[in-house]
Write a structure and sequence with these properties.
Helix content: 40-55%
Number of strands: 9
Distance between the termini: 79 Å
Strand content: 5-15%
Strand order of the largest sheet: 4-3-7-6-5-8-9
Largest sheet: 7 strands, mixed
Shape: elongated
Order of helices and strands: HHHHEEHHHHEEHEHHEEHEEH
Radius of gyration: 25 Å
């Protein structure tokens, strides 16, 4: 009796765990084909530069679909090899998102095509998928070498129907939930936070927060005291934020356009932990304890720009997003020079 139950449970576990992996890989691969990731996205996840090749990025979703097919069609030793590859893949995904979130709280990933913020739920999901892949490795060898999961479809059709019902229900529930952490909310925040700042003269001014920040050389100073030395255009960015890349690359152009203003990066990592750290003036600002964002706005995203006046008052912003920041810089130039900046 016990042996019969054991011999039944192994194929059932192999069927359920493997079918879930097949579904996830298929959905992920199709989504990535519809909304391809780019090198900036892989940079945000901390993938080594040697792997950030255009052909690898294009091949990634296809490889997921091929792996899904292998898990579906093979059992025996071929199934074990396929499941082992799935373990390595999902474990790598788990490590990448964990590390990205640990380095930057608002890091994002394009795990299923559309870029979304990495949350605790993302980590839990990837950990669960890794566990399912381990279960598949341990059980898929009981399935036929050729045919694998499909060979058991007739015998275990109630299981398949049950899994399909769970999957459909989950998808329908997910579609009805508000996507609080996706890019759509960031766009809405950008529109709301930049509304009313098109003209700096109409800006309702508040005091610059007297919160401590660390300079790249280790010196600690408050934002208010630092801004009294010269107006500061503070650019909150992260090297693991793909949407921050255009702002990071534009800082020299912003400094050339606004020589009267101290244009500085605001980073949430310690000086020794960021490749953007600069001890040359104007030094980078480091907000390791996350004091600055909540002192200025209820919601704080990257990239964000804020103008700090030399009189200890906020002079503009915060504005969020690459386009809004570019327009904001143009507005500052016009306010200082009485004309729009030269084209190009």
């Amino acid at each position: 009796m016990g042996t019969a139950l054991y011999m039944f449970m192994l194929p059932a576990m192999a069927l359920s765990s493997t079918l879930i992996l097949v579904g996830v890989l298929a959905v992920s691969g199709i989504a990535k084909l519809r909304a391809p990731d780019d090198a900036a996205g892989w940079t945000e996840l901390g993938i080594p530069a040697v792997l950030r090749q255009a052909w690898l990025i294009r091949l990634h979703p296809i490889a997921e679909l091929v792996l899904a097919a292998a898990l579906l069609l093979f059992g025996g030793w071929l199934g074990i090899v396929s499941a082992a590859i799935a373990v390595l893949l999902f474990a790598a995904y788990l490590v990448l998102v964990w590390r990205a979130r640990r380095q930057t709280p608002d890091a994002s990933c394009a795990c299923f095509g559309e870029r979304r913020r990495i949350t605790g739920r993302t980590l839990l999901r990837n950990g669960w998928l890794t566990l399912l892949a381990v279960v598949s490795v341990a059980t898929i060898g009981t399935l036929p070498l050729f045919g694998g999961v499909l060979a058991l479809a007739a015998a275990f059709w109630p299981w398949i129907l049950a899994l399909a019902a769970v999957a459909v229900t989950f998808i329908l529930v997910q579609e009805s939930r508000p996507a609080e952490s996706d890019r759509g909310e960031q766009v809405r925040a950008e529109e709301a936070m930049s509304a009313g700042t098109d003209e700096l003269e109409d800006y309702l001014r508040a005091r610059t927060p007297a919160v401590p920040v660390q300079l790249a050389d280790g010196t600690t100073v408050t934002l208010r005291d630092l801004s009294r030395q010269a107006p500061i255009l503070m650019l909150a960015v992260s090297e693991t934020c793909g949407t921050c890349t255009p702002v990071i690359e534009s800082i020299d152009a912003y400094r050339a356009l606004l020589p009267e203003v101290s244009v500085r990066f605001l980073l949430q990592s310690a000086p020794e932990a960021s490749r953007l750290t600069s001890i040359e003036e104007p030094q980078t600002l480091h907000d390791v304890h996350r004091y600055v964002g909540p002192s200025i706005a209820d919601q704080w995203f990257t990239p964000t720009a804020v103008l700090l006046g030399a009189d200890g008052m906020l002079a503009g912003g915060p504005v969020v997003g690459v386009t809004a920041i570019g327009d904001f810089v143009d507005d500052i130039y016009e306010s200082l020079h009485g004309e729009r900046p030269p084209a190009g």
